[in-house]
Specification:
about 0% helix; 18-stranded mixed β-sheet; mainly beta; two-stranded antiparallel sheet
């Protein structure tokens, strides 16, 4: 029996599926270092009670919900390669491989493998701070998960590297650069849901995992140099777009946004900052 696994002995990889719920043959998995990998598999067991007993009559398997949350520095080598799949219009599902292992990855031993299939981006939060990095936290849900004690057969594993600091980001509003922001956050909720049907076998596994309606919101923190955003909020002004740099020329942009609130925070011996949340009603682009 091996010692328990540490965070230095886990890895995350992904590949897009040609057929929903099926990992491609000889898959070329890609990945990048994560600061947090959180698998969660919920069978949604059904506890049944009945008259005549203080105990449950049965504990039956319910709808299987495979979920994976990963948090990672957006890799400067390929900022959008993974995050592009948050776009519902791509219609893509993913196979995700989480590996726990001992030794060097290329010659790893004592492997424990979780292979998720039919996975889709449910919620994505991307953040940036002038004193930090551009970081993403993604929650994916899907169709199924399988366990193993080896890497996927005939698979190759590659990894992107690098990080993007807050100093390498940018912020635009309505297409024009704005140099007052010190932090930003954008959240994309795709409302992914499982659809189950009554069938002869494996009814606990979802038949479909479609994208739902998309909700986009976020927040920008400004050094308090002007009352622009407050005036726009009071005037009920809608801006054409809001855009955030996530590395190099890559960005995430939401269209048709309004400021939802305006708050100031001033502490002794510190500058006053304005925190301005927003919501968007238009399309989201990541490129």
């Amino acid at each position: 029996m091996v010692d328990t696994y540490s965070a230095e002995e886990e890895a995350f990889y992904y590949i897009d599926e040609t057929t929903f719920g099926v990992t491609p043959g000889t898959p070329a998995f890609l990945g990048h270092p994560c600061s947090s990998i959180m698998p969660n598999i919920n069978p949604n067991n059904l506890l049944v009670r009945g008259c005549g007993s203080i105990n449950y009559l049965a504990n039956k398997r319910g709808r299987l919900l495979p979920e994976l949350k990963v948090k990672f520095p957006v890799p400067s080598a390929a900022p959008t390669n993974f995050l592009q799949y948050l776009k519902p219009e791509l219609g893509k599902s993913l196979s995700l491989n989480v590996l726990y292992y001992k030794g060097a990855f290329l010659t790893a031993t004592d492997i424990l493998s979780l292979l998720y299939t039919g996975m889709r981006f449910n919620k994505t939060v991307i953040t940036c701070d002038i004193d930090g990095i551009v970081e993403a936290e993604v929650s994916l849900i899907g169709q199924n998960v399988a366990t193993g004690t080896a890497k996927v057969a005939d698979a190759s594993y590659g990894q992107y590297s690098g990080v993007t600091s807050g100093l390498e980001s940018y912020f635009k509003i309505a297409g024009s650069a704005d140099e007052r922001a010190v932090a930003w956050r954008i959240e994309v909720d795709n409302s992914v849901r499982q659809i189950h049907t009554i069938k002869a076998a494996n009814a606990h596994i979802a038949k479909y995992v479609p994208f739902g309606s998309q909700k986009v919101s976020g927040e920008v923190t400004f050094e308090f140099e002007s009352k622009t955003e407050l005036d726009e909020l009071l005037a009920d002004t809608e801006k054409a777009s809001i855009e955030f740099g996530i590395g190099g020329a890559n960005y995430i942009k939401a269209e048709y946004i309004k400021w939802d609130a305006f708050g100031l925070d001033g502490k002794i011996e510190d500058f006053i900052s304005a925190t301005v949340p927003f919501s968007a009603r238009g399309a989201t682009t990541i490129a």
